[in-house]
Amino acid sequence: MPDSSLLRFEAVAPLRAQGAAWRKAGESVVLVPTMGALHAGHLALVARARELGRRVVASIFVNPTQFGPTEDFSRYPRDTEADLALLAEARADAAYLPDVAAMYPPDFSTRVEVDSLTQGLCGQFRPGHFSGVATVVTKLLNRVQPDIALFGEKDYQQLQVIRRAVRDLDLPVEIQGVATLREADGLALSSRNRYLSPEERRAAPRLHAVLSAIATGLAAGAEAEPLVAGGRAELEAAGFSPVQYLEVRDAETLEPATRASRPVRVLAAAYLGRTRLIDNVAALRA
User: Any residues with CB less than 8 A from the CB of 143 and at least 6 apart, and which?
Assistant: First the structure.
């Protein structure tokens, strides 16, 4: 069972009252938004939050508005009690667990759209996804009212979308990205990795290896187009199908990178069997 020192909130009013009490005592609040199914990557966010602020709140909410009609909302793993135990062990101060009806009442009719950053990449294959992300994150920030909110860099397009929404809407919170946590073989930690078969799991690290090789080539002065073409062929040979995208983009704007773009990100999304994997690495163009 979770440690009794971990506060648990399901309603907004007591959550805000606790946050106000912390701030009145001069204690900053850091939010770690999650969809549950916690793993070491999430706990690294909590650890970073503890370094940045006096109080850490982790939210657990599987957000239906960011799943498309053919995506895995019902299949997404859920184990709230195990998640709470992990948060307690990681020394989070509070967990916020809203339900869908409270987050999206029947007459809910407002969405947050971030136009430019959502074009291409995952936005091409997951219509409506980033609107759902921007909307729920805006609501969580308004409810928790943190000083800082942390997001993993594995979902790099998501991180940039959230940064832009916060900037454009003048939300009084600092958004920080935290480096992707990986297995020893390079596979980025993800709640969806549990869906991989043993054979798929052996092939999965090729995604990060290909991205890293492209980044190395760019730093050495190679042209992006042949690096990307070779990387796509290597992923397909390793069993990734389809490879939805493998691209080099400007790290800030996510526009297609040009020779003048420094720094850049090499980003990819591809399926292994039924499991969609995404990853990215930073790169500098020579």
Answer: 12, 15, 16, 96, 98
Q: What is the mean pLDDT of residues 129-148?
A: 98
Does residue 2 surpass a pLDDT of 70? no
User: In the sheet where 275-283 sits, what is the strand order?
Assistant: 243-250, 264-272, 275-283
- Looking at residue 276, its pLDDT comes to 95
**Superfamily of segment(s) 7-178:** HUPs (3.40.50.620)
Q: CATH 3.40.50.620 region(s) of the chain?
A: 7-178
- Per-residue pLDDT reduced to its tens digit, 21-38: 999 999 999 999 999 999
SS3 helix, strand, coil % of the chain, rounded to 5? 40, 20, 40
Q: Which of the residues 39, 42, 129, 208 is marked catalytic?
A: 42
Integer CA distances (angstroms), 255 to 15, 124, 234, in order: 39, 14, 25
pLDDT band at 76; cut points 50, 70, 90: confident
**191-283 architecture in CATH?**
2-Layer Sandwich (3.30)
E strand spans, 14-77: 29-34, 55-60
Residue 254 neighbours by CB under 8 Å, 6+ apart: 117, 120, 121, 157, 160, 265
Distance of CA 250 to the CA centre of its chain: 19
Known catalytic residue: 42? yes
